[in-house]
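debug: dumping io for the single-chain case to check the tokenizer round-trip. Nothing else runs in this session.
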Amino acid sequence: MIKASIIKEFRLIFSDLHSLAVLFLMPISFMLIMTFALSNKAEDLTKSINLNITQQDSNLAESLLKAYLSDVGFSQDINQQADVTLELATGFESALFADQASSVITFSHATSLSPQMTSLAKQHLQIALAKVKLHIYLLDAGQLSESMPLAEQMSRVSEQTNQLKLVSFKREENYQAVQHSIPSWLVFGVFFIVLPISITLISESQNGTLLRVTTFPISNTAYFSAKLLAFYLVSFTQAIVLMIIGFTVIPKLVDAPSLNVLQLVPALPLLAVTCATAVTFGAVIASQIKSHEQAIVIGGGTNILLAAISGLMVPLDIMPKAMQTIAQLSPMHWAQSGLKNLFISDSDVLSLTTALPLIIFSVICGVLALWLFELKVRKLQWK
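debug: decoded output
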């Protein structure tokens, strides 16, 4: 009987194209879009910022500032509306070397420019000013010749200020984007199992299946457990497919190194626990949903809210401390941080401290879901 129930659930799930799209196409699309969004390098971002520099008097320092800002990609097209405007004060060059620091540049930006891009522009302005001061100092000290082409002078100054040559990076920037983006959106997709579970229960409530089941030689607990087992197998399959696509196919699209499929094996135990958490949590919500509209609003809305506070949509380390604390209570956060740690640290051992909160949460949700399902069937019998 249980085997027949599991087969029935599989037929229902794979006959619903909308559910399959939610479980597979949507998270793949999210992984692709967000990985592309995070894979841009700083120099690519600065190219989108149009810079306008106004000055009271023309001098070497002003020319060098323009040159160094252009060198890192800032556009300086006077025919376009400026995203960032730098107004240089009179005596800009001499003020750069004054003993008492004072404001010599007024920085303003368009309201349409995001806080992140504004911060990036400020950082590059600070670096450019340091290079301008070093450039003029080297000219005065005779270590740079004015007869040299400006590009060669700038190259030598940049070489003097580039300290990254002293640092070796273990991973490429695009690889880091893949490592952070894929686990987040994989977990987000897995938790959307709540929608197929909800739709199935709603259909069975409406067509009388749940009432007919009470006449079969199988308990409500066994029937619901078989249903959840079927959804668990689908969820685990979904997670493996998303993991393989995320770490082998998507990196090729963003020019990042791909992982060998065998490197994904250490993540399988955590994936298994994550899927159990998603299914049992989804079952708790699904057992209380009474219509397809509620499934979309409550089921989908709960997932989106959890993702928002768990550090999936916005990196946790740039959130305020209060939100970082709240995120620690979310099962989505536990799952995605565990997956990230496995890949970022190259660890091949699942930490018990990572899996234990998910296991406890799954057990609690599983017991609660069974109790709520039993109440749901009793209410149907009394109608």
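debug: round-trip ok. The beta strands are 51-55, 84-88, 105-109.
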